[in-house]
Amino acid sequence: MARDFKTLEIWQKSYALALALYQTTEKFPSHELNNLTSQMRRAAISIPLNIAEGCSRQTKRSFMQFLSYSYGSIKELQVLIRFAKDLKYIKLDEFVRLNNELDGLGMMTFKFMTKVENDVWLSWFKK
Questions:
Q1: Cβ(106)–Cβ(71) below 8 Å
Q2: Alpha carbon distance 103, 31 (integer Å)
Q3: Average model confidence (pLDDT) across the chain
Q4: Do residues 63 and 57 lie in contact, with contact meaning Cβ atoms separated by under 8 Å?
């Protein structure tokens, strides 16, 4: 049975968030292109990428590892947007919106990981 990552709500939300982060970083100073801009973009896109890659894995353990990478990237991105706010690259209201989205995505990802760990999604994997 093929596992279509695009059907997962955590993938859909993380993909939309990555697009939003790319737009946000468009406004950053050009001297940040190879620094903060690049780091934020890599962290943002790694969230849906790791979910997609995890869906291609054949074991629960491997899938969980990629979900864990996504969760780590969410936390990394929360630090990076705070840093961008403190540098005055993003406004407070945008920081609050992005941080709230990341909080929600983090909770959703953690809950999904719990379901996978508790074998709710076991039918996805070979035994």
A1: yes
A2: 29
A3: 92
A4: yes
Q: What is the value of pTM for the model shown?
A: 0.90
Report residue 123's pLDDT band, with 50, 70 and 90 as the boundaries.
low
The domain ranges of the chain are: 5-124
Burial (CB count <10 Å: 0-12, 13-18, 19+), residue 79: exposed
Average pLDDT over residues 55-81: 95
d(CA 72, CA 10): 14
Burial status of residue 46 (CB atoms within 10 A of its CB: 0-12, 13-18, 19 or more): buried
DSSP-based three-state secondary structure for 119: coil
> 5-124 is classed in which CATH architecture?
Up-down Bundle (1.20)
Q: Determine what percent of the chain falls in helix, strand and coil, rounding each to the nearest 5.
A: 80, 0, 20
